[in-house]
Specification:
Elements (H helix, E strand, L loop, with lengths): L5 H12 L5 H18 L5 H16 L6 H11 L8 H31 L6 E5 L4 H12 L3 E7 L6 H11 L4 E4 L4 H4 L5 E4 L3 E2 L5 E4 L2 H10 L4 E4 L44 E4 L6 E4 L2 E3 L4 H9 L18
Parallel strand pairs: 1-2, 1-4, 2-3, 4-7, 7-9
Antiparallel strand pairs: 5-6, 6-8, 9-10
Helix pairs in contact: 1-2, 2-3, 2-4, 2-5, 3-4, 4-5, 5-6
The structure holds ribulose-1,5-diphosphate (RUB).
Length: 324
Amino acid sequence: MERKNRELEDTVNGIREMSIRGAGKIARAASSALASFAREWKGESRDDFISDLREAASLIHSTRPTAVSLRNGILLTLKGSNDEVDITSVRKRILHQSGEFIERAVMARENIAEMGSKRIPKGSTILTHCNSMAALTTIKKAYDEGRVEMVYSTESRPWRQGHITTGWLLDNGIPVTMIVDSAVRHVMRKINIVVVGADTITANGAVINKIGTSQIALAAQESRVPFMVCAETFKFSKETLLGSLVEIEDRGPEEIADPKRPQDFPGARFENPVFDATPPEYIDAIVTEVGIVSPYLATEVIRELFGMEGPITIEGRRSQFSWL
Ligand code: RUB
């Protein structure tokens, strides 16, 4: 593969090392890196170009396994390229589709904020988890409309993305209270609504988001606190319609214990799942750019937006899958 593309390399490394993170951002970065790869590709054979694009797509996709936004961002950027007859038209299509995907993704967040903010009651104390720009943009819009008194921001171990959220809220002048993850149930009596983002939404309406989200949903339901998810439609997983399971990323033990002190826990095993699944019965609403839907309508959203044509990964048939 003509790998010498700086943006592609930086994006792959950035997503792996999590300097580029958050489901929406990784999808936009992947799309932009593919556009850069297509723009700068040097070669003479159209078939080599297609084959290098496939490799570049697989390379980016291998960076993080859970967020379907990454997969959908790649697919929407490359779709139809294999039908083009020469290098110029393949390149033109990819540049156009990447621009369109990124523009729509940015606009989607604004639409989500516009609709979602209206669901936040006046005088609300909100709880959010991890660092979701779809959720935060919605919270900011509600704050600007005079609906928000306070936002509780969880620490979000082990990576502490809650620090980013807290900084962002402070930068935007929004009152914030930081808590550790295990304080969620204790503070739930003060919360009027939980607002979180999503990495993936499955066909049966389950929301995959940062580890701890499902415990928050449980505590919210116990206290009759509404649980709202803000997510662009490219976070819905078409593959799950046919029974594919979402892989939950399991990161290394060094994020839990000090790798320089293995003697502290001789013989201990570590598990570090960084996402979990919240079942639909705990979710009151999913706010997308095309409307606010019940999680039970996830299948309809997927059918409406993606149709049933095009490549689908079916469990056990991964080797037959092709990006374009
Ligand atoms: C981030 C996370 C966010 C979703 C949605 O996890 O779980 O809630 O990705 O984010 P990580 P957004 O830090 O491991 O990527 O709304 O910005 O797409």
